[in-house]
Amino acid sequence: MWHNEGMVTAFRRHQARCKYAKYREPRKHKDCTCPVHMDGFVTTPSGEKIVMRGSLETRNWAHGQIKLNAMIEPHLRGEQVLKDITVEDAIKKFLTTKRTDIPARTDIGGESDSVTAFRERNGRKADEEQEQVRKYRDVLSRLKTFCDQNGLVLLKQVTLDHLDEFRSTWKGRPIYRDGKIVDHKPKTQSGKQRYQQNLKIFFNHAVDREWISKNPASKLTKITVPDPVINPFTPEEWSDIFDHIEPTFPKIHTMVRAFVLVLKESALRIGDVVKLRPEDITPNGEIEIDTQKTNEYVWVNLPREVIDALKSFEPKSHNFYFWTGNGQLETAKKDWSRVMLTLFRAAGVEGGAARRSHNFRKTLAVKIAETGGLDAAMNLLGHKSIKTTEKAYAKFTEGRKDQVRDALRKVRELEKSNK
């Protein structure tokens, strides 16, 4: 047990499976991982006794002490302590609201009897959380941990300085060695930008609900993301990729070839290709779908070669060409990403992650921008805003090049006339 100046005791509330649960005085023992609770009262300078009892919402003993001190100190100073919302409750309420606001997932397939039985035996629920809600939870769970470690119990205690410090803790993907995490890669600038954007959305929500009076994230400095560098596949790389399909995947080469052709000729994201259905292709050989990521309508006509390739293999299931329809689409996407990575390595395609499956999309978009302009590229890619397309592909448009040509021509003509 641990006492503080306010006569409030922190202790572990031992669970039934804990060895200390049956001891005569279980509260004396804390070298386990059972939840930390508090019990007692704190006396204010005016003599009022405030009862403090309940969970400290942590299993870390040191964090429990920090949180308890943060809760007691305002009472000891005689401050008026209101029933302000905690960081934990604010996050829970926010995520509950977003789960209701955001459309339900459409990327969850069926579930085999064996998977259902396994899940029920282990008391697990099916994961039906929307992708955007998962992204909110990703950064907010880290915020909750940061607040626990720094004694920030109430949401109103979180300041701009705290969020600056919180940003410095952001890490990228884990680095494994011998099955264990040994380090993390640096967080990418775009990853940091998404985290910060979702933080601002959370705190704006809190202001709208009058949980806090102002948004501490609103004055965070802007995170700069470098302009995307697009390096389209060359004709030689196209040839190498297709030449290595059959030797690399002798048993499923017809399916892999069809998958690559759809990526190449449609500019669809890999997830949209994975969940492509026969009914998504019209009798005229045109794909019409709402994209998974942005729910935007896209239309693209396919060459005859692609249609023939889709008919050349046995689809994974009755409903989908490249997915069994069981489990989550995200799992199938990862499986196909591994297939594509194996193919790129076999074909000797260089350039790292920037020149993998998504580069099929970029390569076709560059050609469309060059010949048809930004509006055509925007419609092909399913972007919601022309600014998104312009940022990456404006330099490839013929109109921009013509402007430079005209300006250079005028400069050179002026130079000649001045000689």
Describe the SSE topology.
Blueprint: E1 2-3, E2 8-12, E3 36-43, E4 49-55, H1 61-76, H2 87-101, H3 113-121, H4 131-149, H5 160-167, E5 171-177, E6 180-186, H6 189-208, H7 235-243, H8 245-248, H9 253-266, H10 270-274, E7 286-290, E8 297-301, H11 304-310, H12 329-347, H13 358-372, H14 374-381, H15 386-393, H16 398-418
Antiparallel strand pairs: 1-2, 2-3, 3-4, 5-6, 7-8
Helix pairs in contact: 2-4, 4-6, 7-12, 9-11, 9-13, 13-14, 14-15
Radius of gyration based on Cα positions = 29 Å
**Strand arrangement, major sheet:** 1-2-3-4
Q: What's the pLDDT, averaged over the residues?
A: 85
Compute the separation of the termini in Å. Answer: 92 Å
What is the number of helices? Answer: 16
Structural class: alpha+beta
**Residues in β-strands, percent:** 5-15%
Number of strands: 8
Let me know the largest β-sheet.
4 strands, antiparallel
Weakly predicted, low-confidence segments: none
Q: Choose one word for the global shape.
A: extended
The run of helices and strands is EEEEHHHHHEEHHHHHEEHHHHHH
**Percent range of helical residues:** 40-55%
Q: Indicate the multimeric state.
A: single chain
